[in-house]
Design a protein that fits this description.
Elements lengths: L2 E5 L3 H13 L3 E5 L2 H10 L4 E5 L7 H10 L7 E6 L3 H8 L6 E4 L4 H7 L6
Parallel strand pairs: 1-2, 1-3, 3-4, 4-5
Helix pairs in contact: 2-3
Length: about 120
């Protein structure tokens, strides 16, 4: 079973992808901040991490860089999950090694396109 970590400080923004992924057979874990994401990622393996760019404690790009710098997570598929404009997304993600960008509000189709290629 595939597992996804959904990181967003807004509950509705966590629940919708969790619902869609659950319908696709994925197990999901939800957290509301970057510190919790780093902690949970140390405890379990995730096939995909949806990571909001604006979290209350750490920016999403910083969480992404920290995950990538840990030898245990370099291959984890990390998606920038945001409602920002395309220009702002490009600015924030240019130095962070995200695999995909998923803009809010999401649809089932947009979420499927953001998943790892082998899971679409």
């Amino acid at each position: 079973m595939n597992k996804a970590l959904i990181v967003d400080d807004s509950e509705p923004n966590r629940r919708l992808p969790a619902l869609i992924l659950g319908q696709l057979g994925w197990a999901t874990t939800e957290v509301a901040d970057g510190s919790s994401a780093l902690h949970v990622a140390r405890l379990d393996h995730f096939d995909c991490i949806l990571l909001d760019l604006h979290l209350p404690d750490l920016r999403g790009d910083e969480v992404c860089r920290r995950l990538r710098s840990n030898a245990a997570y370099p291959a984890t598929w990390i998606v920038a999950y945001t409602g920002e404009s395309a220009e702002h997304i490009a600015q924030i993600t240019q130095d962070a090694p995200f695999d995909a960008v998923l803009t809010k509000p999401i649809t089932r189709t947009s979420l499927l396109r953001a998943l790892p290629p082998q899971e679409r």
